[in-house]
Amino acid sequence: MQTTSYPTPSDALIHLGPGLQDYVTPAELDQLIDGTLAPAVIADRYYDDMGIADDMYRVDTDESESRTDLLEFVRSEIDGAIEQRKNTARDEAMNRELDKLRRHDDRAHAEKLATIENAQSLGATKAAIAHTLGISRVTLDKMLREREDRALFNEAIYTLIRRDMIKSDQVQLFEALGIRDTAGQASVLLAGLSTRTLDDLREGEQELLDRAEKRARELA
After folding, report:
1. Which residue from 1, 30, 92, 136 has the fewest beta carbons nearer than 10 Å?
2. Residue 157: half-sphere exposure toward Cβ, Cα within 13 Å
3. Under a CB-based contact definition with an 8 Å cutoff, are residues 5 and 11 in contact?
4. Residue pair 157/188 in contact by the 8 Å Cβ criterion
5. 122-150 average pLDDT score
6. Which residues 6+ apart lie within 8 Å of 4 measured at CB?
7. Which residues make beta-bridge pairs with 5?
8. Is the Cβ–Cβ distance between 43 and 71 less than 8 Å?
9. Following CA atoms 200, 203, 204, 205 in sequence, which dihedral angle do they give, to the nearest 10 degrees?
């Protein structure tokens, strides 16, 4: 069988692999990144494993040039791994900040709804509240209906949660508590109703779940 010849070992690796992260263990990669493992150790391992001396890989460089080339390849792969980790860390940090914004937005929304409720309890009309907020009556009615839906779904979802549930089902229900996405809550509620045995309900819980299921099916 004819063996393809490559100008350098790194050219062969670029075409055929393996890349560094597929070749070393996670612990070795950590050591390469923090400098406690010399890149030359892995470069020599590449040289031996590739079988360059036995013509398993045909390259146009001699042994000294091949080892130097592999060392540069390993160093380049380490740089790439470091950059990848930086990008991952940056993405994780960005997502944490976005999550903070979402939570802040949820708090602000909840505070606005609480203020609306207080204004209503003091006799403010919907027209006056909508005018003060600079929104239409339709938008205000939607906000209030979403508040009612969220309160209903939160209570119903909490009713479905039991300690003996499958852990993944329990987590999904807990994560749906309190979120603003009432359509998302409706989907989780319906899924929970389809998987949970409802033979241990207390007084009033069946009626609650029936109301919640009816509203959830309207939104789903």
Report:
1. 1
2. 27
3. no
4. yes
5. 88
6. 58
7. 58
8. yes
9. -20
Task: From 93, 115, 150, give the residue that closes a domain.
Answer: 93
DSSP line for 73-108: HHHHHHHHHHHHHHHHHHHHHHHHHHHHHHHHHHHH
Q: Which of 185, 165, 187, 169 is nearest to 177 (CA)?
A: 185
Q: What is the pTM of this model?
A: 0.48
Count the Cβ atoms, other than its own, within 10 Å of residue 79: 11
Q: At what angle do helices 126-133 and 63-121 cross, to 10 degrees?
A: 140
* Residue 123 backbone zone (phi > 0: left; psi -120 to 50: alpha; other: beta): left
**Number of structural domains found in the chain:** 2
Is residue 19 domain-resident? yes
Tokens representing 175 are 């994560």
Report in angstroms the alpha-carbon separations of 48 from 11, 28, 55: 16, 18, 11
